[in-house]
Amino acid sequence: MHDAADPQGLRPSSTKSVQQYIDERPMWPDGTHLPTVPMTGMQWRIWALAAAGKFFEGFVVFMTGVALPLISREFGIGAAQNGLISAASLMGILVGAVGLGGMSDYFGRKRMFIVEMIIFVAFLVLLVFCTNFVSLVICLFGLGVALGCDYPTAHMIISESIPSSARGKLVLAAFGFQALGALGGTAVGFLVLSTIPNLDAWRWMYGTAIIPALAVTIGRFFITESPSWLHIRGAVDRAEAATRRLLVRAPQYPTSIALSREVELAAAGHGGKGSFLALFAKRNRRATILASVPWFLQDLGTYGIGIFTPTILAAAFGSKPDHVRSITDLILNDILAAKGAALITMLLIVGIVFAVILADKVGRIWLQVVGFIGCAAGLLVASFSDGFEGSTKTVVIFAGFMLFNFMTNLGPNAQTYLLAGEVFPTAIRGTGAGFAAAVGKIGAVATAFLFPILLTGIGTAPLLYILVGTSILGAVVTWLYRIETNGVSLDEIGR
Asked: Where is the Major facilitator superfamily (MFS) profile domain (predicted)?
């Protein structure tokens, strides 16, 4: 078997880009191409380490929700301080996405891929030994920084290392490991609460993730740097070496790697040298709007529907005691919360599975547009609940909730993440994807602060109508600023 550029394996292949080598299908001596590009061991290792990081993100985020009532009781934390705890995590994500995520454009994908996991493990260990409110806020902020950095970095380390034809399903499959992590966290949380029914249970919950997360951190030292990033930075020899290491196969193809030396010109043609302001330059403005505005609108809907989640879960699993009279009541409440989280996570997994299957077939733009419209339909169904009473009211809300969760995870929740890491040129991909993630979290913060006030002021149905409008707006913005990336080489997207 030989590479297409060198059927006989006797001469060096012509100069190509890194992505062209990655996308190259092998050819048999008779000139027949393989139907697909087989993944190498290094490509699968990179994917698995990124997916494992996503798993621990979901695992720990879930743990924070379950652990918070126990932490609040142990440290005597009030409602205002609970708000600061939530704000610390969100602020950490904002800083990590824009700051550390953007640094991958300067210091490399691999380096930040390792750094984020070191930060994650370090603050996870410190969190287990927290003794007061201040140390708790600092540790949750640190975990948020690591999670924020991972939004762009994990996406890029995968997408810049794999064939274009499989990029959508593999990036989203890794993204879906957040949901599997949350489901794993559900099982661990339930087990810990059942076997250690005391206030220290939350420390054991977090502690279970330390050793596996440390193993993932060590594994990341043994992958190759993104050859595309090395190439646009002018390190052509290192880029060629990294590409060879990435594409080790038996039998070997391509048989030789020769990258273009005209990297400065290529980088300029793809959007500049990586400054933050380059995101708003004319050539990148369309990508910036597509990546960030729908993500912001998607988070408005996702966090908005979360306001009604306690009512739905209480109906499904039984109401918790109104007043916590003992540690037993506290543990019971947490177990009910774990069951509710398991239901939400199952909806997330189902939607993500469909997104993985369809992303490279239907395309990102269509899935995002249809997903936003489906979200609007689900919210509209939920708004009809005002015309019913009792169990019928709960059923109508629940039906709308189910439809919303499926459609958002099929469409905007998955596709905004995928598109944000694809539509920008390599030189500013980390900065752009990080900016988009941060804008999305601004939507989450706005929802957390404003929607409870609006819910009291204008009522349930009008608030749901507002969310219907934001979902439709998300579909419109996606279509107007569409950049279809399905099966397109990262070298060509946005040109």
From this structure: 46-486
Strand partners, 16: 259
Contact 333, 321 (CB under 8 A): yes
Q: With contact defined as beta carbons under 8 Å apart, do 301 and 383 qualify?
A: no
Contacts of 78 (CB under 8 A, 6+ apart): none
Query: What's the DSSP call for residue 276?
Result: G
Helices 109-128 and 133-159, axial angle in degrees (round to 10):
150
Q: What does the pLDDT look like over 73-85, one tens digit per residue?
A: 888 877 667 777 7
204: which 2 tokens? 């054991």
Task: Extract the tokens encoding 54.
Answer: 């996503």
How far is it, in rounded angstroms, from Cα 192 to Cα 202? Answer: 8
Handedness of CA 253, 254, 255, 257 (dihedral sign): negative
Separation of alpha carbons 193 and 181, rounded Å: 18
Reading the block at residue 475, the tokens are: 């579909």
Over residues 82-108, the mean pLDDT reads 85
Q: What is the DSSP string of 344-368?
A: HHHHHHHHHHHHHHHTTTT-HHHHH
Beta bridge partners of 366: none
Q: How far is CA 177 from the centre of its chain?
A: 9
Cis check for the bond before 251: say yes or no (omega within 30 of 0). yes
Distance CA 433, CA 439 (A): 10
Q: How far is CA 280 from its chain centroid?
A: 23
Residues contacting 462, CB < 8 A, separation 6+: none
Sorted by where each begins, the domain ranges of the chain are 273-322+354-495
3-state percent breakdown (helix, strand, coil) of the chain, nearest 5: 75, 0, 25
- Rounded to whole angstroms, what are the CA distances from 273 to 222, 265, 270? 28, 11, 9
- Gyration radius of the chain over CA positions: 24
Question: In Å, what is the CA distance from 202 to each residue of 106, 154, 155, 288, 324?
Answer: 38, 28, 30, 40, 17
Sign of the C-alpha dihedral computed for residues 452, 132, 336 and 329 taken in this order: negative
Residue type, 416: T
Q: Among all chains, which residue has been given the structure tokens 């190439």?
A: 231
User: What residues have CB less than 8 Å from 495, skipping those under 6 apart?
Assistant: none
For 94, 99, 136, 175, the CA distances from 89, given in Å and listed in that order, are: 9, 15, 11, 20
How far is 26 from 449, CA to CA, in rounded Å? 55
Report whether CATH 1.10.443.10 matches the domain 273-322+354-495: no
Prediction pTM value: 0.85
Structure tokens at 136: 């708790």
Q: How far apart are the first and last CA of the chain?
A: 33
